[in-house]
From TrEMBL:
InterPro entries: MeTrfase_RsmB-F_NOP2_cat, MeTrfase_RsmB-F_NOP2_dom, NusB-like_sf, NusB_RsmB_TIM44, RCMT, SAM-dependent_MTases_sf. It holds the Pfam family Methyltr_RsmB-F. This is rRNA cytosine-C5-methylase. Residues 166-442 form the SAM-dependent MTase RsmB/NOP-type domain.
């Protein structure tokens, strides 16, 4: 007798529905929230990270893993879209595509085991009320896992990972520059530290000392565990970010204003020269960070909350550093979200504010006083165009010299400006993109 014939009416009993309870997975939940924030709402990564981490009870370890996963997906986002394209007959809703890109990033760039990348993506979709797409995700990611890195053949990854408007704009920086920048974007940036002047530190033995004096340690190094952190013997600062304050050449006893100061790397550089430094910052939470950093470093700067477009010092200053708010496109190695959040239409408001700050700085300086205008932007509008606008306002150019930039001659432009980008020092791990120009305050 068969099992079939023993059943009444020969019918199978109805299959019992499996009650699949998706497991919590704070790492992927937080990474997914970050990516939806960037792609769908143009929200910066840092803004979503804290909120989502609290919502999903993410431990510091999960938070760090979520940051790593989201950043890897953002670095390779153009490539991931191109890889997925042939597997998708219909355009999926954007959150589904984001989950697929995350799964794909784990398979192709983070060496995750296939069962983990596929399984966690399917669970994520179920948790996010996107269960109807779980089958699609399972099928697509299995194929991606099977074919692996061969899927990258024929994709111009460098080109795909940079939005077209930025690629076009960066062509103005020189032939091959967009590609050189895109190459550096693929990997997490190393950790650069500036040492407090006059100290000896074991960090110089632990890392590589760069030609500008920064100590470079591998990406992912935990800053607070490094020797000398609590004693304030160093601060985190990209090698390129050290250049504007260095080129202001502040002297002991000079009055110096740092107009847009938080988190304070440049304030510390200026104050440790012996100059009397006033650090101005408008944003309250960034001001708190600035205070914390100055306290850890025992840095003798005076910190003031004020708007740099209207603030007036008690006495006219000898020198001013204006590290103006900008699109931050020079920092994409550390902040790949910038690529997908910023748009060309954001630039006019930024350049208006940069001009207001340049105008205001003239009223704060002694005649003959020095100004450094700097931005961590790769955009022509925020760099050279602002330097020309400054001259039109009456500022006198004071070009940087080959001697001042002897350790980085490729960053000196024919106009005597500083222009760095992530493709410089590529053999050492690159650097952030900065523009800086120096001016002298005219007689009133
Ligand atoms: C590029 S960041 C400065 C980085 C800083 N100089 C350093 O090296 O650590 C620009 C800063 O300007 C601040 N900011 C923006 N608008 C401002 C304003 N109107 N007045 C003063 N600070 C402002 C931002 O909050 C931000 O902290």
């Amino acid at each position: 007798m068969t099992a079939e014939s023993r059943r009444p009416h020969g019918k199978r009993p109805p299959a019992r529905k499996k009650n699949i309870q998706p497991q919590p997975d704070p790492t992927r939940d937080v990474a997914f929230d970050i990516l939806c924030g960037v792609v769908e709402h143009r929200r910066m990564l840092e803004g979503s990270l804290s909120k989502s981490a609290t919502q999903h009870n993410a431990e510091p370890r999960d938070r760090a893993a979520a940051h790593r996963l989201a950043a890897a997906t953002l670095r390779h986002m153009g490539t991931l879209r191109a890889v997925l394209e042939p597997f998708l007959r219909k355009e999926p809703p954007e959150p589904v595509r984001i989950a697929l890109m995350m799964g794909c990033a784990q398979l192709l760039f983070l060496d995750a085991p296939p069962h983990a990348a596929v399984g966690t993506t399917v669970s994520l979709l179920r948790r996010r009320k996107l269960a109807p797409f779980a089958g699609l995700a399972n099928a697509v990611l299995r194929k991606v896992a099977d074919q692996g890195k061969t899927l990258l053949d024929g994709i111009d990854q460098e080109r795909q990972n940079i939005p077209a408007w930025l690629w076009t704009a960066w062509n103005k920086l020189g032939k091959g520059t967009p590609r050189a920048i895109a190459r550096e974007l693929c990997d997490e940036a190393p950790l650069d530290l500036t040492l407090r002047p006059g100290i000896t530190s074991p960090l110089t033995e632990m890392g590589v000392v760069l030609p500008n004096g920064s100590v470079r340690l591998p990406a992912g190094t935990r800053v607070s565990e490094l020797p000398g952190y609590d004693e304030g013997t160093f601060w985190v600062q990209d090698a390129a970010a050290t250049l504007p304050a260095r080129l202001l050449n502040a002297q002991t006893g000079e009055l110096v204003a740092d107009l847009c100061a938080a988190p304070g790397g440049k304030t510390a550089q200026l104050a440790f020269t012996g100059a009397t430094v006033t650090a101005v910052e408008q944003n309250t939470s960034r001001l708190n960070r600035l205070h914390e950093n100055m306290e850890r470093l025992a840095c003798p700067a005076t910190v003031i909350q004020a708007d740099a477009t209207t603030w007036q010092p008690d006495a006219l200053q000898d020198a001013i550093l204006l590290d103006a708010p900008c699109s931050a496109t020079g920092t994409i190695r550390r902040h790949p979200d910038v690529l997908w959040v910023k748009r060309p239409q954001d630039l006019p408001a930024l350049t208006r504010q940069q001009d207001q700050m340049l105008e205001a700085a003239r009223t704060m300086l002694k005649p003959g006083g020095r100004l450094i205008y700097a931005v961590c932007s790769l955009q022509e509008e925020e760099g050279p165009a602002r330097a020309r606008a400054a001259v039109a306002m009456g500022w006198k150019p004071s070009p940087f010299t080959a001697e001042e930039l002897s350790f980085l001659p490729e960053a000196l432009t024919p106009e005597g400006w500083l222009r760095t980008h992530p493709g410089l020092w590529a053999d050492k791990g690159g650097m952030d993109g900065f523009f800086a120009a120096r001016f002298i305050c005219p007689e009133r």
